[in-house]
Automatic annotation (TrEMBL):
Name of protein: UPF0125 protein ACFFFU_14145
Family recorded in the similarity comment: Belongs to the UPF0125 (RnfH) family.
InterPro entries: Mopterin_synth/thiamin_S_b, RnfH, RnfH_sf
Species of the source: Luteimonas padinae
Gene3D superfamilies in the cross-refs: RnfH-like
Domain of life: Bacteria
Length: 85
């Protein structure tokens, strides 16, 4: 099966397509990707939080999640104060 592993960075992203056996988990895909794991806070499959032992299906996209830098409500308040969206 083929799975894409994605790491979003502040101004770029890195995506790696990996080939895994049919019983692969999120942890297997992450290990096979070779992407840096420093600062990773968790995982998601197509935007839904997933545990490292969650099974994968062919065509899934595993996302490496980083912690939020700023609470979304606070970011919205700051943008409103500046008059930007």
């Amino acid at each position: 099966m083929h799975v894409e592993v994605v790491l979003a960075l502040p101004r770029a992203h890195r995506a790696v397509r990996v080939e895994l056996d049919a019983a692969a988990t999120v942890a297997d895909a992450v290990a096979a990707s070779g992407l840096p794991l420093e600062g990773i806070d968790g995982y998601a499959v197509f935007g839904l939080r997933a545990a490292a032992d969650a099974p994968l299906r062919d065509g899934d996209r595993v996302e490496l999640l980083r912690p939020l830098q700023l609470d979304p409500k606070e970011a919205r308040r700051r943008r409103a104060a500046r008059g930007t969206r």
